[in-house]
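Trying the structure run again after the queue cleared.
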Amino acid sequence: MSNSPFASRRGLMLVVSSPSGAGKTTLCRRLCEAYSDIVLSTSATTRDPRPGEKNGREYHFVTKSEFDDMVKRTAFLEWAHVHEHRYGTPRDEVMGRVEAGRDVLFDIDWQGAQQVAAAAPTDVVRVFVLPPSMKVLSERLHSRASDKEDVIQRRLGRAPGEIAHWAEYDYVLVNHDLEETYAQLEAIYRAERMKRARNPGLDPFVQKLMDEPLS
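Done. Tokens:
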């Protein structure tokens, strides 16, 4: 992605949250497919795999006791209870990538976003995705046909409480149209990569530029 005149940069953590069904997972996967410099954080979870999911790809599927052990070892950058299950982000994996200049994308809820922001405030960019209406949110949850009706109703019931945290985010997108919303997310990502604080290689570059003779 980068043709920067200064090679050194620090990676960023792009956190994308939304109520279930608003489109964040589709947006996140598309961004990862478009940019080789960003990788989707693979969370550990205690829930069972959905059809088509593979251990280590969508999630690290672990037992409750394994998850408990990781919590005790402070092996998570963040973890939370979400829809009767627990999810957590491996700390060392993420921080190693950021320090090496790679970007990490998080598809997590507001609880996880709060913890990540507290742990690494200068590295985090938070984006919240809203549905255009609750009716559309319900239609999207039903159309993906991956959950039973009682699960869908629980997700819809939690949506207002999740949406209530929208003001904690740096950017808020309303997903009326997937193409438009993706373009907005892409613009945010590209701009945040160029922030001066994330490009320490600028200092020696500018100094060298100023020391060059004018002729």
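The CA atoms of residues 128 and 166 lie 6 Å apart. Worth checking whether this holds up in the mutant runs.
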